[in-house]
Amino acid sequence: MAKNQVAVKKKRNINNIAYLFVLPFVIVFLVFNVYPVLRTLYLSFTNYRGFGDAVWSGIDNYIRVLTDKFFWRSLWNTIKMWSLNIVLQLGIAFLLTIVFSDVKYRMRGLGVFRAVFYLPNLISATSVAFLFKTLLDWKYGSFNQMLLSIGIIDEQINWLGSSATAPWVISVIQTWMWFGNSFIMLMAGVQGISRDYFEAAAIDGAGRWTTFGKITLPLIRPIMLYVFITSLIGGLQLFDLPFLINGISGGTAGNPSGTLQTSVMYLYKFGFETNQVGYASAIAYTLFAIILIVSIIQFKTLGREDD
Amino acid sequence: MAKTWYNIKKGALYVALIALGLVCLLPFLMMIVNATRSGVEITRSFTLIPSTHLKENWVALFDYVNLFQGFWNSIKVAVPATILTAYFSAITAYAMAVYKFKGNGLLFKVIVVFMMIPGQLSLIGFYNLCQKLHMVNTYIPLIIPAIAAPGTVFFLRQYVQSALPKALLEAARIDGASEIHIFHKIVLPIMSPGIATMAIGAFIGNWNNYLVPLILLNSPEKMTLPVMISTLNAATDLQKNQGAIYLGVAISVVPILIVFCFCSKYIISSISAGSVKE
Fold this sequence. Notes:
The complex is a heterodimer of chains A (about 300) and B (about 280). Chain A is mainly alpha-helical and about 300 residues long.
């Protein structure tokens, strides 16, 4: 009896140390993660301008966001750039997954190809923006030079300076940066499928397309959903690349008629350039609400097919 | 006959894969080649043969901006931040996976929720907090928050659960080892592959971070490499000499390429882990 109590007491002591172990994380998490999110929420209901007191203004900022046609335009720009990007990115990643998981062809070199495809994702957006801005320069860019020398085009194309091409060029650069990432994730999903399924299918005489459609595809659907949602969350926050390309372009190609302005660039403008901090906070939460709603719809539609 | 057809198809697939690989590599190649060419050469024609103007480009670039300062600043931010993320995520994950304590379940739920919250939601509140704490234009808000990395804790918690034999802990306890000693001497070595995976990802993230240093740092001598690179646009002299700009970008990219050459396996496994964990 007494011995048992000692054991229990000792056990409790051991577990108490856990509080000490998680304490630094919890403190920093509360200060730098939880508080800023709540602070942004509070500021979104005030007319705070970056200094002085924050005066409560109710839902004024939200009414302003919802009726601000430039906000909706920036959202439309973002969605436009994201949608082409996600189609290309997932499309390429999906094709690559099919190729590398094919039981008949047994493609080799997965490790090397995976590394090469992922390489563009490692470089900072600043470097990527500068690199492509310089390569795609209207007059002097190497890309136009290359196309001219091959004879595909007769005169230079102002890729980043025209509203007809600039958003799509951003989508393609985003695809270049991210398809390797999606591919690795989808491929990891395929490699996680038990061999038994494939062997059983082979014994039953299933062809490769049947195997792919009936086994691989349903089993990687959760990962596809995950890739899609993370890409949506990231895509609607698109900032670095259009912001930098826009800024760098300066005289030759400045934000062609505002088509490169994304929602987070719009938020940045109010939060850090014109100091309408309260309004910028409301933009942040409106954007979050939109992301949340779209994610829930995605979960519902993509998840339901599992039945 | 069927065999030949099979080989042709397989060959075509390889050609397509190599072409896609080239698309990934070509911009880097153009960048490195153009870093050695003069502005006039670059404007006149396209080639993948290096030229001889590397030194002039170097001088022109460093006349305008001291990239090594930015390099050093980035190291001062990224290295401590990565170490903090690695150590504190490991100890938090270990505690959550091994001990029974009140609030463990709640903590886990909150971590999952915060993994899904987009960064822009905290951006303004974060800057506001830094203002109040007088930490604008310092490295503290770029380093200290690294202690709390919800995604890394999430991953390492699963890692501990699958990789750490509980019997080992019991044996150490019977030998009279203290809990913190057990963590440092037994648990950390076992967790190290998982920690390395997450640390490399954290390092690259810190190294490439642009938006937060952009809003926090306002004096040029404190700028990290990405922010410094982005100031090159103001250099109208350099606009005439694209070779120097290519060189600047190349210098910023090289360290990451070197890290990647040695650690690509870890980096790829961290992404794979990200998708399989759910």
